[in-house]
Amino acid sequence: MSRDRRRSTTSPRPIRLGLGPNLAQFSLLVAVNALVGGMVGQQQTVLPLLASGEFRLTGYTFIFTYVAAFGITKAAANYFAGTWSDRFGRKPVLLVGWLFAIPVPLMLIAAPNWWWVVAANVLLGINQGLTWSTTVVMKIDLVGPARRGLAMGLNEAAGYGAVAVSSLMAGYLADQYGLRPAPFLLGLAYTALALLLSGVFIRETRDHARLEATQHTPRADGMHDHLHADLTNRQIAAATSFTEPALSSASQAGLVNNLNFGLSWGLFPLLFATAELGAGQIGVLFALYPGVWGAGQLVTGALSDRIGRKHLITAGMTLQAAALALIAASHGFTGWAAGTVLLGAGTAMVYPTLLAVIGDVAHPAWRGRAVGIYRVWRDSGYAVGAILGGIVADLMGLHAAVWGAAAVSAASALAVAVRMYETHPRPVNTSTQRAPRG
């Protein structure tokens, strides 16, 4: 009897799907993802000013090299994050990702030339790809199918809310203490805290995905029947990139969304500086975009669980196009502030919803790889936006580059409207859904 009692006290806790049963782990992952976003926010306001002020760089294309380097390496890291998390587990990938973050703020503080900044952003891209992709997959693992939109809304709200707060803090520190080293001390603190949380308190979630796979049932309408559990990596990549209408539509919309973000990252501070705004005002403008984006996802992620995914994505891409047009047509703080708020709102409608689409369609057995491939396409947008934005800005001016992004966003909205189908199996109030009988 006593031996049985001892065995029962040491047996592993049962695995359950859902936000309620996994709230503690889910909350820790939200906190970790906020730290991931903070690593980007510490530099967004400061690096364009550092490029033009301290390193005396001219030519927008050259200044945007750090955004392109970040986007390319983050896109590649997303692929490996998905593949490795399915093969080795989620937690080891998360830890490795944070190890790559350690040198980043130190290199930015010590950088004697611009290529140190580019190299630091290569490491930051690896950090972001491995850690952000893994926290996305882990949250989807924990919550199960019913609350994917809510889970992704909370995840992305934490990450991009932290981008906004850190951008604001970095702008303030730069105003008060100079461009270096004060703003980058934030990154050192974020990395230390993230390594502690990830190494000591975060638990592996791959068994949650395996449990969901045993409960997986085909859709009643027959969609996804060809997307069975034992697809090869090549088949998963082809479906996510080109052949499956919802997955590939999500990939192209994600790329355009981050094209806008990459463009804003490198170009907006320079555009705002043409009105002779100070670093503090530029920091406010730059924080509005991810701030509204982050806070809005607290609503839009859960909303997609209630009304479905497709129309929210279409409307969000359309709103982004309108916001960019307003920014391009403006020449002062008021117009730019209104445009960045609208851009954040449109992005909030799209960002968690696209991830929910991937979770809806991908089988639990290869979900990590599908998320990774989607994020390869999405985060390639950083590089595309930075390079194309820089070229257009050099040839035709800053405002012309923003007009171009507005046109691309409108085309993306049209493509989603035509090609994507509704992926949420029952776009109704999830509180009324019941488990199927049988």
From TrEMBL:
InterPro entries: MFS (IPR011701), MFS_dom (IPR020846), MFS_trans_sf (IPR036259), MFS_Transporters (IPR050171), Sugar_transporter_CS (IPR005829)
Organism domain of life: Bacteria
Transmembrane segment boundaries: 21-40, 60-81, 93-111, 117-138, 150-172, 184-202, 312-330, 336-359, 380-396
Pfam family, one: MFS_1
PROSITE patterns: MFS, SUGAR_TRANSPORT_1
Domain annotation Major facilitator superfamily (MFS) profile: ranges: 26-424
GO cellular component, one term: plasma membrane
Protein's UniProt keywords contain Iron: no
Subcellular location: Cell membrane
Topology of this chain in the membrane: Multi-pass membrane protein
UniProt keyword list: Cell membrane, Membrane, Transmembrane, Transmembrane helix, Transport
UniProt entry tagged with the keyword Transmembrane: yes
Any one GO MF annotation of this record: transmembrane transporter activity
Alphabetized PANTHER family for the sequence: INTEGRAL MEMBRANE TRANSPORT PROTEIN, RESISTANCE PROTEIN MDTM, PUTATIVE-RELATED-RELATED
Name recorded for this polypeptide: MFS transporter
